[in-house]
Amino acid sequence: MILTEKRESRFKEVIAKRQRDLTIVLENVHDPHNIGAVLRTCDAVGIHEIFVLYTEEKLQKRKVKGGKSASGASKWVSVRYFESRETCFAAIRENYNFIYATHMAKESVSLHSLDLCSSVALLFGNEHDGISKESLGLCDGNYLIPMHGMVQSLNISVACAVSIYEALRQREAKDMYAKSYSEQNKVHSAQYQEWYNRQLHR
User: Partners of 22 in the beta sheet?
Assistant: First the structure.
């Protein structure tokens, strides 16, 4: 398929706005539709990759694309799968300075008090057990999404959406999306070539 001028322009616009110091980590999330919904929201906010950690044996052979809930976002957001917690967190630390977990604890702070303009990864646990104690011990802090109803928890994909749209709000206020594509930027050009090849071989 030939890449139209309009499509090429769109690729470059989106690539320039990617927030490469912001990511999501999902630990043992069971429902592939939740991961699909997370991927869709991450693409909308400009997140270029997410980390999926499967320490539960029954999940380890799964490679989730997310189906309809992803709405094609799996083509634009890289999914990095890990079965080892230590390897996963080491990979996160290579490119992100802080890891914050959505977890209710005495020391937890409000989502709105986090500095989400810094280099940060946000960790979410599974639908039943939340985040493991082992993973919590590897994080830099915990946060809570402000809630004022009887229900004290949100679906994981909703919690993720609320969290990263707070990051988007903070980053827009600092013009962190006001970036232009550059042919000299190796990250930009590599991403463009990857998307170009994918489009070409559809």
Answer: 120
